[in-house]
Structures
1.
Amino acid sequence: MKITTIETIYQGADSAMPALVFVRVRTDEGIHGTGDTFYLPQTCIAVVHEHIAPALLGSDPRDVEAHWRSLYQAYARFGGRGAELRALSAVDVALWDILGKSLRAPVHRLLGTAHHTVPTYNTCGGPLYASVRGGSQAGFGSSRRYGKLDDFDAFLNAPGQLARELVDEGAKGMKIWPFDRYAQEKGGRAIAAEDLAAGVAVVREIREAVGDAIDVMVDGHGLWELTPAIQIARALEPYDITWVEDLVLADKPHVLARLRAASTVPVSVSEYLVTRDAYLPILQQEAADLVMIDPTWAGGITESRKIAVLADTYGLPVTYHDCTGPFTLLAGIHLAAATPNLRYQESVRAYLRVVYPEMVTDVPEVDDGVIAVPQAPGLGTELLAGIEDRPGAEVRVTAL
Ligand SMILES: [Mg+2]
């Protein structure tokens, strides 16, 4: 089997997810695979066509580890852990899709299945959450309101009501970011007492509404410096928080270690990290209670499974990140099903019900807090026919 064509499909700056790009790899045997990645899509597209396609065309797509290593070695020489690794991640997911289809097996079977059910929690973004142009928003989300399923608007303005609705439909967890707005308005160097109280009030309303019927996770998107991050974590201690994540950026393990030591709230680290080498010092310095991985940022399925093994070696559970694209979610679910030390697969119900069905043929359903594990060969979903012909879409092709 030979790779004959690598295509990038970008839905355009006015699409629901303008930071998302799809990558499709085609072969001479008629099998194709698809992946995606998120942030700086034009830069990722350039990496795919300038380097990855010329390197991979004509080679066997099933040599997944060999391709990963040769591409990684090229990028690691000059610290290429951003767009290069995201482009590599998207292509790697597409290669696993091809491998699964070629062997007529779902990807989780190739990885060695550990679980037949994958628990998920609802990240409270609305359908427009990732619609900010340029893909550079740091977590606060679009200020435009969508209406139905706008969980972003709901957690800020009616958190108790949202929590009751989620519990009623079987959700086992919800993630919110009630402090972001203050960091974005005033900077993250300090937090005012009234802002700390207002953020905590969101969590208190959830607990008052549903008690401990739902896990609550609090994200900070790396917006705070250490002192206000510690204040936030300590203020959340009475509310049985499942974890805080990215209250500070995850680039300094010793800072995270101080945050973790300063409160009893578990600390999750971090979808912003790329490759095993970024996670290792976090684990060595005991700076995390849980590990979060985004499969199409951190290095694809190939590298994510190794990060999960590394986390297991340090006794930590893994959660796979997604509010970033349907193939990221599918990659995460297959990884999750094959991760013995699994905690959660993240999902956004507004994406599952509104955004992703506009992009792909099959979106896994959530039932009673469990997300379905696809059993079709490969990843188990395809781009919708004609997606590349929609207004604003940009397709670029490099072929043998
Ligand atoms: Mg996060």
2.
Amino acid sequence: MGNSIRHAVVTGATQGIGLEASRALLDLGWRVTLVGRNPSALERVCADLANPTRISTRVADLSSLCQTNDLANQLLDQGEPIHALINNAGAYFHPRQTTSEGVEATWALNHLAPFGLTRAVKPLLRAASSPGEPARVVVVSSNAHSMAKIPPLEDLEFAQGYGAMQAYARSKLANVLFVREQARRWEQEGAGDISINAVHPGVVGTRFFRDNGFFGWFWRTLLDRVAITPAEGAKGLVRLATDPALASVTGKYFSRETEKQPAKLALDDALARQVYEASAKRWQEVLEA
Ligand SMILES: NC(=O)c1ccc[n+]([C@@H]2O[C@H](COP(=O)([O-])OP(=O)(O)OC[C@H]3O[C@@H](n4cnc5c(N)ncnc54)[C@H](OP(=O)(O)O)[C@@H]3O)[C@@H](O)[C@H]2O)c1
């Protein structure tokens, strides 16, 4: 990477943890591509951030696999190496929703989008890597992954028995399984010059849960009692993207800035493989429809 300016792509950059991670990276001298679904929110955020010359924006609703794929293609066409991809956008859906592509929304946004975007932009990540300085992928998971029960592989999208918290927990478990499996695959195929890790940002005082009726209000009220600020919550993401001490760490789970053992289910390599394959198949089904 030498002394050249580093480039990060941050999803969910219009508010909360993603916005603060973007701000911190800009303060460190990075160039940041902010990804959001709402053009006017992106405009507002750009006006608020310092260093406008180092910001660009991309619009994509990441609950749509086609839009996520378009985003990846736009980034590939642009050709700018990506030193850090921060998959942060996420939400909680109560009641169950399906996207226009027929995918359960939590699974689409929280898991399939980071899964597909990361895989698609691999050439740009590799282009940013240099010996001892891997490009980094960060997947924002949650401690809630530990609440997930063994997922039935034939019903990953809860056609049966949807519960918003279980769907959220399952998507966040899938994030941790994904980084383990992707790290293993990249090592195996000689692309170990990219690192990928999952992070629980902490319990953070953002708008998360707010627009989800009574249950959202309940969770938000409970969490706000112990929440840290979005800037504090962003620290774990930023450390994983930038800290030279973590250059060789891959396939791991962090709670805020500290590496932690994830829940037992998240260490199940066979499950990681099965969920990875099911996710690749789901992507293919949607893109070919
Ligand atoms: N807050 C916590 O306590 C906590 C704890 C553990 C993990 N997390 C995780 O941290 C991440 C960030 O959450 P947050 O607390 O910062 O929440 P937030 O304030 O609600 O921000 C979520 C971000 O994701 C974006 N987003 C939502 N749906 C999207 C879509 N369909 N397409 C593209 N972007 C979309 C939002 O865009 P808009 O501005 O357009 O809505 C926003 O920028 C999530 O993955 C969440 O699961 C949060």
